[in-house]
């Protein structure tokens, strides 16, 4: 290593571009300065700076993408707050109001109903008696599982009507079909039967959540139907003939 004019002339360990700069500075005062053309100097600097040693701490592509996204969100919110009366506070108030309306509608209407085109059968493949369905319903009710309790109680209602021969046992019957057929035999309970079938469909296929009141109403209907006497077709005919006479 040599010294000219008190400055180090060459440092082999330095990178190429830095070494070139040092050599230019190392010339004595009695020598004219050496200049490099602009384009070769720029290209040399570009090659030097493109080396991995200078980019070890650069952010990853994911970090850059996230920074770009959040910058966009920040610009968007800034523009919205500028256009909103009250600035940022007004924008926050509007967002909170919209969320409150959505929450209220969701609470009031519940999950949108999605009923299949053809309702599945009321019963599964394993036949059970009305008493078994009632016991299962009460077990679910004791645990607060109101959806399952409503389902089993509706099955108990229909199975009891089949056991009394008020409905023909028919595999594949839906809750709506059972309510319509039972309403013809027990016309005084037609509306309650339709409501029970609708409650069953709501919790089974519509995504609704049953309440204790729903179950208690269905259990009361079950007890009333057990004591109800069917309106036979012959009775209506005799009544009409008696009125005519």
Automatic annotation (TrEMBL):
Sequence intervals crossing the membrane: 86-107
Domain of life: Bacteria
Keyword annotations of the record: Membrane, Transmembrane, Transmembrane helix
The Protein-glutamine gamma-glutamyltransferase-like C-terminal domain, residue ranges: 153-221
Pfam family, one: DUF4129
Protein name: Protein-glutamine gamma-glutamyltransferase-like C-terminal domain-containing protein
Organism annotation: Streptomyces thermodiastaticus
